[in-house]
């Protein structure tokens, strides 16, 4: 039996006392002290890991003032703090052993918009894409772009002075900051903005904290002006840490303290609000995808694109392209990046042009095309072809592919993964190709593979060498390569950090700044934070402080991962491979990615959070000498005995009495998962939470008893056929308030679905009956018309009309449909972690489906969540014993069939099931093709999760989240278009709409059947 895990790092007494005092003082935000909450922010997208002392999540600026002011109390002056935004840094900027102050959950307010003066005021937790979605209807956007824009916060962008695509035209974040509100370590609120130098000098004379800040920054930046200009390279992206140069404008008439704060990585204060410039959206865009015979050709040709007045030039190498081809994202972009027949595409430049008038755009593109054609004819640039697109949606999708490259590199096969530690070097663009060739030679000398992508127009290229951080020798190699890359960038007139800040690379700061300027940095740090209490060790330490800088040798995730046996890591690779890129934090309501993360804004309830918790749970299991794989094997072989049951009950009592077990914290995160598997389709690393969640549930419940609802859900495929025979009395009982109240109180189950009346058998009789012997006797020609419909428990027993309609549709199209006898699929068992029972169910179903498949007719299913189990969970559970049969979803087969012309004046709207869309990215397009073949209009509506997800929406504990998810993305389109116009593919989704709106929408096949019937009636 799995032991309890109480061997976790407990809370420091001083930290506990501070947090209690903070709560008593009226802190409005959240205070999190659990080991799970701390683990969730102990990593980012870097190789490092550091467990914080606690996590506080302020609601507003007043909370920041309160927590810093309280920290001045003599009892708490030893405490240190680190601000955190989206947590997507690649160099551990926000990783700390101090108290994490996370501004991303609550401080998401867009406070003020001034279109006339072209600025917007926002809180620090606002997400970049959230802001642009708000600005888009007004014709504006916040220009600095970055690959993590759908989860990166404005505060995080300010603290790293973030930039990305198009920075030659649009600049960095600091170029768009008009004013900042920052809370200093002593609770002082600093409002900083550009002002005449004389005004700054007056402020510097004040005998207070603000006066000391202004005096020190003025002195450091003015007295060393020439040395600053001589030291920093003339680059678009020279992120210096504290921007000593741009505190003054060119003629030294203006002074802006905000420039010191931008890029300071939270080491000077907490940025709480920002007033930012906004940029008009260009009316016309064109993206030219230029294809090359080598990556070197793409690099060397890029400066010509810049010279041709391109807005931006982005590049990716063949490794990134090939990873993209294997990802869901490729389905969105493949038509715009087609292969060149007979030639291999090994490099790609994505060249964007913007213009305010069509004539100007045409002129730019005409000039570029002439240049490209000439290069291709001469054969001297390695160009093998190019494609143009003016479609804004297509351009966005192509950039989404490039942005996803950050995560896709982490999906490389093998123990060695491309890692971000020396991957934002910046050199003058004219030196980039030679620099990269030498960089590649360096990596080749160590026999390393790597991927490359980036912003060639700005001389910034992301190079990620593949290393195994579980290997101590390769961890040492990370240091060796880091040192050599620093020297290499210096050789080519560049620097180590062109985009992603310093973080754990801060130790290289003194060499870059030189002793004089680095001392000035330390003086500035001392003026802001004399006791080194804010993000200590990052960028610099205060002058006269003996505190060390952080180092690239800091504690890494590999230190913990190597404590897990290789066999366990390989078995749980879906959780161990998570690299922290954070795509699962995607805020967009219309994205199906991780609904639980969206609705809770809790990092634990995300694929990254759950993967991290599972990873730590496995490590702690190993520490206690538990062979997890052996335990699983035992559980698959035998059921729980009486003695084990008694132990479970004792453990349950101990749990109720407050006995600590880290497993409970993991369980809490796993229970919040909707098991929708969107993560498995959309995560670039393919983190599959439902798979390892099921395994964890099985292991957890070997120690603790299961709730009644688990047994109710897991047995639904066995109980539903029995209950369907007495559907009317069962439904009558379920509709009684006393019964519903009792179910909610005892089982935790609400809004129980009603069984179909009449039943499926009553609807269709024996018309479509399965008779194996009779079917085997059919001629080969007769078998050509056969189509088998595979039953699932939800549609067959709770939506029998849909199954009957599917059979009638197939018959109307000239086929001979046969309804296969109901065989449990096992998904409900798998969702709740009954893996021994699931294996038995899967074996029985597979044997039957293999037998049916011998007849050679297509087997079709109606509900994606069930059908996809045959393809994924069955393969994992049964291996070769699963057989080679195929069960398709109706649309996968129907899209290949001819359809008669139909007529309707309606423009139908498709709301597709999230599991279906992410596992089968061609789903929406397939349904559109089906309707188009019939002469009908169907458009897909972008929606996220409906909030039902099987039985999730029926569980009492999930009601608030289930309904909030529906309101987040489904409510508006359903109410806007109405039930007659909306077509919904998922059983759960239709059930949720019925629950929330009182009307059940049709499945697309039902709409087709209805129009077919009307067509036949009109013809007769």
Structure description:
There is one protein chain. The chain is built from 47 helices and 27 strands. It is of the alpha/beta class and 1020 residues long. It folds into six domains: 106-280, 2-Layer Sandwich (Uridine Diphospho-n-acetylenolpyruvylglucosamine Reductase, domain 3); 283-411, 2-Layer Sandwich (Alpha-Beta Plaits), CATH 3.30.70; 414-500, Alpha-Beta Plaits; 559-705, Fumarate Reductase Iron-sulfur Protein, Chain B, domain 2 (Orthogonal Bundle); 713-894, Glutathione S-transferase Yfyf (Class Pi), Chain A, domain 2 (Up-down Bundle), CATH 1.20.1050; 907-1019, 3-Layer(aba) Sandwich (Rossmann fold). Strands 13, 14, 15, 16, 17, 18, 19 and 20 form an eight-stranded antiparallel beta sheet that branches. The chain has a six-stranded antiparallel beta sheet with strand order 5-6-11-8-9-10.
- Separate helix tally: 47
| Shape-level CATH architecture of the largest domain | Up-down Bundle
Rg calc: 30 Å
Strand content: 5-15%
| Broad CATH class of the largest domain | Mainly Alpha
Helix content: 40-55%
Poorly predicted ranges (pLDDT <50, ≥5 residues)?
A: none
**Spatial separation of the terminal alpha carbons:** 70 Å
Domain count: the total is 6
Instruction: Let me know the average pLDDT.
Output: 92
């Amino acid at each position: 039996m799995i032991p309890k895990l109480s061997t976790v790092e407990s809370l420091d007494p001083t930290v506990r006392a501070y947090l209690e005092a903070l709560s008593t003082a009226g802190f409005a935000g959240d205070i999190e002290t659990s080991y799970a909450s701390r683990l969730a922010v102990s990593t980012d997208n870097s190789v490092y890991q550091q467990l914080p002392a606690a996590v506080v999540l302020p609601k507003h600026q007043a909370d920041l003032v309160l927590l810093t002011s309280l920290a001045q109390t003599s009892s708490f002056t030893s405490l240190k703090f680190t601000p955190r935004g989206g947590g997507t840094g690649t160099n551990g900027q926000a990783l700390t052993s101090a108290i994490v102050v996370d501004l991303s959950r609550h401080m998401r307010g867009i406070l003020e918009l001034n279109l006339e003066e072209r600025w917007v005021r926002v809180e620090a937790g606002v997400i970049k894409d959230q802001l642009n979605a708000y600005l888009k209807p007004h014709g504006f956007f916040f220009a600095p772009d970055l690959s993590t824009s759908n989860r990166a916060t404005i505060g995080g962008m300010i603290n790293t002075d973030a930039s990305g695509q198009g920075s030659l035209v649009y600049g960095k974040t600091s170029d768009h900051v008009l004013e900042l509100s920052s809370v200093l370590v002593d609770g002082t609120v600093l409002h900083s903005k550009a002002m005449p130098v004389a005004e700054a000098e007056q402020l510097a004379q004040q005998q207070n904290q603000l006066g000391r800040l202004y005096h020190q920054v003025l002195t450091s930046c003015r007295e060393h002006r020439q040395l600053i200009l001589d030291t920093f390279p003339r680059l678009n992206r020279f992120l210096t840490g504290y921007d000593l140069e741009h505190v003054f404008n060119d003629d030294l008439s203006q002074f802006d303290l905000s420039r010191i704060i931008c890029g300071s990585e939270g080491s000077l204060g907490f940025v709480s609000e920002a007033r930012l410039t906004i940029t008009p959206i260009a009316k016309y865009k064109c993206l030219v995808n230029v294809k090359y015979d080598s990556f070197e050709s793409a690099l060397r040709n890029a400066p010509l694109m810049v010279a041709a007045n391109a807005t931006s030039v982005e590049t990716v190498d063949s490794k990134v392209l090939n990873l993209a081809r294997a990802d869901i994202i490729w389905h969105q972009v493949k038509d715009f990046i087609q292969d060149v027949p007979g030639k291999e595409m090994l490099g790609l430049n994505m060249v964007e042009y913007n213009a305010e008038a069509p004539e100007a755009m045409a002129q730019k593109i005409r000039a570029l095309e002439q240049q490209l054609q000439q290069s291709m004819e001469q054969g001297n640039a390695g160009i093998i072809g190019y494609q143009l697109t003016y479609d804004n949606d297509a351009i966005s999708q192509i950039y989404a592919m490039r942005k996803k490259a950050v995560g896709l590199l982490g999906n490389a096969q093998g123990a060695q993964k491309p890692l971000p530690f020396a991957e934002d070097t910046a050199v003058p663009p004219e030196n980039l190709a030679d620099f990269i060739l030498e960089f590649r030679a360096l990596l080749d000398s160590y026999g390393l593979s790597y991927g490359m992508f980036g912003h060639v127009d700005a001389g910034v290229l992301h190079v990620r060498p593949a290393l195994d951080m579980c290997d101590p020798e390769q961890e040492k190699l990370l240091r060796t390569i880091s040192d050599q890359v620093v020297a290499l960038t210096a050789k080519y007139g560049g620097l180590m950090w062109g985009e992603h800040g310093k973080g754990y690379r801060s130790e290289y700061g003194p060499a870059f700044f030189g002793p004089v300027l680095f001392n000035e940095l330390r003086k500035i740090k001392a003026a802001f934070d004399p006791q080194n209490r804010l993000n200590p060790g990052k960028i610099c330490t205060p002058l006269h402080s003996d505190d060390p800088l952080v180092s690239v040798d800091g504690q890494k995730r590999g230190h913990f991962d190597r404590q897990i046996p290789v066999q366990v890591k390989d078995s749980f690779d879906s959780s161990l491979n998570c690299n922290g890129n954070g795509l699962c934090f995607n805020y967009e309501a219309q994205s199906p990615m991780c609904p639980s993360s969206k609705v809770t804004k809790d990092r634990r309830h995300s694929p990254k959070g759950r993967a991290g918790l599972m990873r730590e749970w496995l490590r702690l299991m190993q520490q206690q000498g538990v062979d997890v794989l052996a335990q699983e094997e035992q559980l698959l072989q035998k059921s729980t005995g009486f003695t084990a049951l008694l132990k479970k009950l004792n453990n349950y009592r101990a749990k109720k009495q407050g006995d600590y077990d880290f497993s409970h914290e993991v369980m809490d995160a796993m229970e919040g998962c909707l098991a929708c598997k969107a993560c498995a389709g959309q995560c670039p690393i393919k983190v599959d939470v439902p798979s390892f969640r099921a395994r964890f549930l099985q292991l957890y419940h070997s120690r603790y008893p299961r709730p009644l609802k688990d047994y109710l859900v897991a047995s639904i495929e066995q109980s539903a056929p029995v209950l369907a025979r007495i559907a009317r009395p069962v439904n009558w009982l379920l509709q009684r308030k006393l019964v519903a109240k009792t179910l909610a109180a005892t089982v935790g189950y609400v809004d129980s679905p009603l069984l179909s009346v009449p039943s499926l058998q009553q609807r269709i009789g024996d018309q479509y009956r399965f008779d194996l012997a009779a079917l085997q006797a059919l001629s080969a020609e007769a078998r050509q018309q056969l189509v088998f419909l595979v039953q699932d428990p939800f549609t067959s027993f709770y939506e029998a009309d849909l199954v009957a309609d599917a059979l009638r549709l197939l018959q109307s199209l000239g086929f001979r449909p046969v309804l296969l006898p109901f065989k449990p699929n096992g998904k409900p068992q798998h969702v709740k972690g009954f893996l021994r029972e699931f294996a038995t169910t899967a074996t029985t179903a597979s044997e039957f489906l293999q037998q049916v498949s011998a007849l050679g007719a297509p087997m079709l299913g109606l509900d994606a969540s069930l059908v996809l189990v045959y393809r994924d969970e069955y393969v994992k559970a049964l291996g070769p014993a699963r057989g080679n049969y195929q069960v398709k979803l109706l649309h996968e087969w129907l899209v290949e069939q001819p359809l008669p012309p139909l007529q309707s004046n309606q423009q139908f709207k498709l709301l597709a099931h999230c599991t279906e869309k992410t596992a089968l990215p061609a789903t929406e397009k397939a349904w559109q093709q089906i309707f188009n073949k019939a002469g009908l209009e169907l458009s897909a509506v972008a929606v996220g999760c409906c909030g039902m997800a099987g039985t999730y929406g029926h569980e009492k504990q999930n009601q608030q989240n289930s309904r909030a998810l529906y309101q987040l993305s489904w409510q508006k389109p359903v109410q806007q278009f109405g039930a007659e116009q909306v077509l919904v593919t998922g059983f759960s989704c239709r059930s949720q709409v019925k629950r929330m709106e009182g009307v059940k929408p049709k499945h697309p096949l039902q709409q087709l059947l209805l129009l077919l019937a009307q067509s036949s009636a009109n013809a007769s």
